[in-house]
Amino acid sequence: MYVIEKIFMKHIFEKYVVLYIIVLTGVQLPCARVLAWAEGCNDSTATVEVVSHCPTTFEEQVEAAVRKSCSKYSHKCSSFVYHCVINVWENETLEVCAPRKIIVGKVCAEFNDGGKSIQRHIRRKCKTCPKVYPSNESYKYEECYSYVKRHVQRSQNSTPFQKTTIQLDTASPLSSNSNLLIPRGLAKVLILPSLAYLRKNTLF
Predict the structure, then answer these.
(1) Phi, psi (5° rounding) for residue 203?
(2) For residue 113, is pLDDT > 80?
(3) Percentage, residues of the chain above pLDDT 90
(4) What 8-state DSSP symbol labels residue 188?
């Protein structure tokens, strides 16, 4: 009986802790539209930089933070720390100096350029992420960066549009320019019937 009560109390405690964090940070969950306080930071925009990859270890995070040196930027925000997160569209990874946020709900963190803020990426669930974590520890959850890699790979593998052209015979009465190029579709519709008409009505 004691064990059951202990498990029950732990469950209740976790629920209230998460709700308390939601109220403090202004995080919005699908089932709880709570907005007590939300902070955007206009000064973050000037620090945004697109990078090919983000740190995935503590050592890499420290090295990147030192290189970015968020302390050199003037700001009026409550805090200004290094982040490397995905963007809203999941097609870029961004380094940015921004206030630390609490990410709730086992999702990835993103930087929203419109809101000038680090926030939850509501569409991207993260199996390896905990229920609650600080946004500047996103380097621990490489799963989130994999979404960007997949998006880039799909874009690179897509077949580019190719324009097909044909070259008219320079001996043709239609063409006095040997380099005249016309799309294949238009040639079938316009040129070929015209050539047939000319051959029928012109003495060669």
Answers:
(1) -85, 120
(2) yes
(3) 47
(4) I
Q: Which three-class secondary structure state does DSSP give residue 61?
A: helix
Both tokens assigned to 164: 């097909």
- Assess whether 65 and 141 both reside in one domain: yes
SS3 70: helix
pLDDT tens digits, 122-155: 888 899 999 999 999 999 999 999 988 765 555 5
**Mean pLDDT calculated for residue range 113-129:** 92
- How far is it, in rounded angstroms, from Cα 90 to Cα 33? 24
Over 90: is that where the pLDDT of 168 sits?
Answer: no
In-domain check, residue 142:
yes
Dihedral-angle region of residue 32 (phi above 0 means left; psi in -120 to 50 means alpha; beta otherwise) = beta
What does the CA dihedral 78, 80, 81, 82 come to, rounded to 10 degrees? Answer: 140
**What type of residue is 99?**
P
Joined together, the tokens standing for residue 89 give 């569209």
SS3 content of the chain, % helix, strand, coil (to 5): 40, 20, 35
How many domains are contained in the chain?
2
CB 85 within 8 A of CB 117: no
Element at 103 (helix H, strand E) = strand 102-104
- Higher-pLDDT residue of 9 and 50 is 50
pTM of the predicted model, to two decimals? Answer: 0.59
Task: Give the pair of three-digit tokens for residue 145.
Answer: 């960066």
Q: Are residues 23 and 55 in the same domain?
A: no
Among 38, 96, 47, 101, smallest CA distance to 74 is for 47
